[in-house]
Amino acid sequence: xxxxxxxxxxxxxxxxxxxxxxxxxxxxxxxxxxxxxxxxxxxxxxxxxxxxxxxxxxxxxxxxxxxxxxxxxxxxxxxxxxxxxxxxxxxxxxxxxxxxxxxxxxxxxxxxxxxxxxxxxxxxxxxxxxxxxxxxxxxxxxxxxxxxxxxxxxxxxxxxxxxxxxxxxxxxxxxxxxxxxxxxxxxxxxxxxxxxxxxxxxxxxxxxxxxxxxxxxxxxxxxxxxxxxxxxxxxxxxxxxxxxxxxxxxxx
Amino acid sequence: xxxxxxxxxxxxxxxxxxxxxxxxxxxxxxxxxxxxxxxxxxxxxxxxxxxxxxxxxxxxxxxxxxxxxxxxxxxxxxxxxxxxxxxxxxxxxxxxxxxxxxxxxxxxxxxxxxxxxxxxxxxxxxxxxxxxxxxxxxxxxxxxxxxxxxxxxxxxxxxxxxxxxxxxxxxxxxxxxxxxxxxxxxxxxxxxxxxxxxxxxxxxxxxxxxxxxxxxxxxxxxxxxxxxxxxxxxxxxxxxxxxxxxxxxxxxxxxxxxxxxxxxxxxxxxxxxxxxxxxxxxxxxxxxxxxxxxxxxxxxxxxxxxxxxxxxxxxxxxxxxxxxxxxxxxxxxxxxxxxxxxxxxxxxxxxxxxxxxxxxxxxxxxxxxxxxxxxxxxxxxxxxxxxxxxxxxxxxxxxxxxxxxxxxxxxxxxxxxxxxxxxxxxxxxxxxxxxxxxxxxxxxxxxxxxxxxxxxxxxxxxxxxxxxxxxxxxxxxxxxxxxxxxxxxxxxxxx
Amino acid sequence: xxxxxxxxxxxxxxxxxxxxxxxxxxxxxxxxxxxxxxxxxxxxxxxxxxxxxxxxxxxxxxxxxxxxxxxxxxxxxxxxxxxxxxxxxxxxxxxxxxxxxxxxxxxxx
Lengths: 252, 495, 109
Prior knowledge:
The structure holds 3 protein chains of 3 kinds.
Chain A: H1 3-28, H2 54-64, H3 131-141, H4 148-157, E1 189-193, E2 210-214, H5 216-226
Antiparallel strand pairs in A: 1-2
Chain B: H1 10-53, H2 66-98, H3 105-127, H4 143-163, H5 172-197, H6 202-237, H7 244-257, H8 274-285, H9 287-301, H10 305-310, H11 312-334, H12 337-343, H13 348-377, H14 384-417, H15 423-459, H16 491-494
Helix pairs in contact in B: 1-2, 1-3, 1-13, 1-15, 2-3, 2-4, 2-5, 2-6, 2-13, 3-4, 4-5, 5-6, 5-7, 6-9, 6-11, 6-13, 7-9, 9-11, 11-13, 11-14, 12-14, 13-14, 14-15
Chain C: H1 8-22, H2 24-32, H3 42-65, H4 68-84
């Protein structure tokens, strides 16, 4: 084996996967055709997840705070896992309070405008692909006056404190305390002195005259979390495997 | 030292000792700072692991949040310990095998200090919540170019040494070193450009970062570990490598399969489907180089079981090679399509990473450290008990982590897939195994306190002045601390 | 041993060969990336097209709703009535209040 043959061998064995696995897919994925809403949809045009301003900033903070260590953001197709059927991960199921089944797998456009797709490393906590819709629905079913952002902030401050968000199968089911294994993100909150009603502080009981105020990072992260929705107000996307019976079927 | 007892001609001995002397500062710097980083990484790993089953642990420090401390733990382990240990091995081994003195020890030392500063800066930024936010490439984007420049300043001299070597045989170790030296900048530059410089699709950014993480092991840390094994096994036993053809086959199979690894993390994500499955296939095929190399090395040392038992270098290396075969077999089991459903998002991946990083790479690196340090400091290791403790605790700790994480992870994954169970049950089920992992990290911490202390003592030139190597046997023919005296019979000749 | 392989020139050449090999795939990226397609977000173009369509539709509807005969009739009527307006005492062509009488400056005492 001469030195020249050795180097050529290395260049070849590395160059082929380099080209096929990294360079070409990266280039082709930079210019993708957009997904249009289906014919039965109330919306028209291209599907674009809402990721402006604070939500985009929140996506970055999600990565920096290491949330992706325990939370995934991908609904795998059924050949790769049972994610579509788990909880309300992939969208809401048809029930007495939900008109249409809007579950679907993740499509490539779901990560649009983020710097990096937070696929996640492990599922110690639940998948967050549909977190925003799930919380909204939970608050609606429980006739809560809280906004989803407030709920998310409460969860970040003390994950064990807030009731669990798994939407009950039947409306009668009692919502019990969620045994979360998520560590509190106390670094995202400031303890401040409050006067009067304590505007902008979280509704938690701590010592008299003090309040817990979310930092800008916490608010951005909460905005990002509640923006994570897999069902677009029940508007079907023909690209994704869809449990909505109104969704257009792929042609045979 | 065993080799000085051989009948090597005096000119050779002088050359070897002058090579050792030319490299003693950079190599010792990389090993000791690597050892300190490893101890730090293990402490961080202990905290990260404890947080998985006891979320209330240390919540008063927001910079120790679960996600951040885990990223800091892996970064410190890979860039603080792994790459620095690899640098020490590369520059020493390449100089020895090319029979050239190092002429740039000062530059290497400076680059090494800068490397440490950059890694420290990166780890602090991660813990402050100011990392890049890209899984597997958590250092902020400005750290990477600094690391790459330092890398070039450290290793370019080894490439030059290889080019100007005296004509003759090229050792198997040199193939791996040369390939690893080139592979790392190739993957690092590509990953940095695509992840941080260019504006790509977020999924491909994730994919390229996962590819970087996979290939960093298969194309850099692993080749360096194998180079060390292919050097130590014949050197310590005094026998040639069992089969040249198997070595050739093992090398090229790694070169062919290695660059495809990494993207298996993206199974089911909406990327072109062949990307994750190519990654999974390459992880399965890594069994081929694992068996080829493992078999070759083990056959080289198999007849000399007492040498394996007595020599610290060989004992670590042989254990590393056995674990490399285990790594290969486990890789096949964990990356088949049905298994990927369970292992993709469970604890299993962590256990598998630790098996590669600690079980394969670090054990081989420890073997190299135990061989190289006495030669460059001209002192022998102080205590065989320290080495024994280091070996036993390491092996026990890493096996426990892998067993707990892999079994716990498969249980965890099965639970997520089992729709008859609520999700919360699975997280609880996994946390039971988390306790095992935490306990195992404490064993690794003990192991590395011994290692670190021993290494720092050697660094302070407090080693034994003896011409007898520290062997791991109970009944030493002489005083276990050896007769005091001149280390090398040739030291006057070389002066 | 062949010692002729090692001389400063050899080392210099080896240095540049090493630099070239280390950076080879970086160079390959620099060469190939200008030919790669630019990042496009057609979704936004599509949304922009949608907005333009709505605008055109409204413009068209406004054009269609325009009754030019009625408009010219109304304008004609205005013009005619404007011509009939003559300035007379008690009939100002421009509607408005009768200007208040100018204040008479009193001579300084």
